Amino acid sequence: MKTNILLLYGLVSLSAFGCKKHSTEQKHSTEQEIKTKINQLYSKKRGFYDNVPDTTLFSNNIVKNMMNVQEITKADIERIKKSKYPTDKPVILEGSWYTSLYEGFSKYTIKKIFIKDNTAEAVVEFESNSRPKEIWTDDVILIHKNDWKIDNIIFSNKYNGPRDLKAKLNIITDFTH
Fold this sequence. Notes:
Blueprint: H1 2-42, H2 60-81, E1 107-116, E2 119-127, E3 135-144, E4 148-154, H3 165-176
Antiparallel strand pairs: 1-2, 2-3, 3-4
């Protein structure tokens, strides 16, 4: 009887240890996927109007809003060309559209990743080469459906301007309506 109880205790302990190890490996893998997405966004500086929004990087909502802003700007450029004032500036998204600081950054570091179910928040610290040097953090929000995608970026409250990427994209949309 004692042997059966010890054997049962051993199996339960081994099973719990095995599950914990698998869970830790899975968490590490998930964090690595998230880091890859963030590195994809910040490793090369991108102009907002240079490319079609990346559907492998951004959620459907963000892609839709980005495309909407691009179309609004394109239409406004055409409208201005045909107007009495063809040198006017169109409605356009300027500066670094995916960080808090208009001028952008020179260096970034992923500081921490929090994962809960199908959402994640990554705290990213940025540094600029400006004088004086600026250091700030933004929070990248990701969602997981079939894979991880950026669903928003919460900008630092250190600077004036939109609170997050969705609000920044909506400024252009709201301006035209």
